[in-house]
């Protein structure tokens, strides 16, 4: 696999808008951390760092989505990308603008796998998101496409571990001690990673910001 110096690597048709300003090499273990990040906060950063460290990932890519079908319309994409870059800056953590012509996670994942077949992708999500995974478009397809890492989030652990996705894929769950094997596991495969709780919340931050303007 090669990448062009003069610009971002080309993606399959419909995926040209994903802007990567960093190199990806065959065999790398890459975590995909998607969301609207409206706004990004320390809780998001903890999820990304926990997954990178515990899974032994070479890089974590934050995919800042234009919107979220399950939530209210987010703020301006450019602003959210800038805020996420400022928060997540680091040698092994990068940010990409996920304007790739795909509205749903399943399409994004398939585009990236088609463009980078030699990479080992892992989908990263907080426990709060995993608890709602069954509401996502083709959520079973997501589990079948790549391994999934679920990182603890306040007040969401029980819902995540007893929810529909956890029950449907109970046989595919790996123990925490196998975290470094997840990226090489054949999907469906998922793992729950315990971590100190960080109570930062995008919803709370938006509400706080709105109250200050009233």
Spatial strand sequence of the major β-sheet: 3-2-1-4-5-7-6
Number of helices: 8
Poorly predicted runs = 1-15, 204-214
Rg calculated over all Cα atoms = 16 Å
Plain-language structure description:
α3 runs parallel beside α5. β1, α1 and β2 form a beta-alpha-beta unit. The chain has helices spanning 42-55, 77-88, 105-115, 127-131, 139-145, 157-162, 164-168, 202-213; strands at 29-35, 59-64, 93-97, 120-126, 148-151, 173-174, 190-193. It has 214 residues and is of the alpha/beta class. The protein is globular. Mean pLDDT is 82; it is low at 1-15 and 204-214.
Question: Which key features would you list for this structure?
Answer:
alpha/beta; single chain
Task: Please give the structural blueprint.
Elements: E1 29-35, H1 42-55, E2 59-64, H2 77-88, E3 93-97, H3 105-115, E4 120-126, H4 127-131, H5 139-145, E5 148-151, H6 157-162, H7 164-168, E6 173-174, E7 190-193, H8 202-213
Parallel strand pairs: 1-2, 1-4, 2-3, 4-5, 5-7, 6-7
Structure described in brief:
The protein has helices at residues 42-55, 77-88, 105-115, 127-131, 139-145, 157-162, 164-168, 202-213; strands at 29-35, 59-64, 93-97, 120-126, 148-151, 173-174, 190-193. It has 214 residues and is α/β, with parallel strands linked by helices. The protein has a 7-stranded parallel sheet.
